[in-house]
Amino acid sequence: MDSDFRQDLEQLVYEVFDREDTSFAELRLAPDEAKKLTQHYNMRCVPMDKTVYSDGKRWYNVWRLTL
Q1: 2 pLDDT above the threshold of 80
Q2: Distances (CA, A) of 50 to 30, 37, 53, 55, 59
Q3: Tens digits of per-residue pLDDT, 16-43?
Q4: Mapping DSSP to helix (H, G, I), strand (E, B) and coil, where does residue 37 land?
């Protein structure tokens, strides 16, 4: 995973989930961001609908999974 991309995702996880102390968020993500959150950050990303915007992003319901 690209270093800048990983830093961006780490920042996103910190700002949305850690700092806000929540396990759920609605986020607008690119498919590769959703995939990496699922693979590397123990998250579940489910598209909210089939709409894909001009920048390739879509809205997802995102949960932090607990072990």
Answers
A1: no
A2: 13, 19, 10, 14, 9
A3: 999 999 999 999 999 999 999 999 999 9
A4: helix
63, β-bridge pairs: 24, 44
CB atoms within 10 A of CB 20: 10
Which residue reads 């910190």 in tokens? 14
Cβ neighbours of residue 1 under 8 Å, at least 6 residues apart? 36, 40
CA dist., res. 62 & res. 20, Å (int):
14
CA distance 17 to 24: 7
Query: What is the distance in angstroms between the CA of the first residue and the CA of the last residue of the chain?
Result: 24
Angle made by CA atoms 49, 51, 55, in degrees to the nearest 5:
135
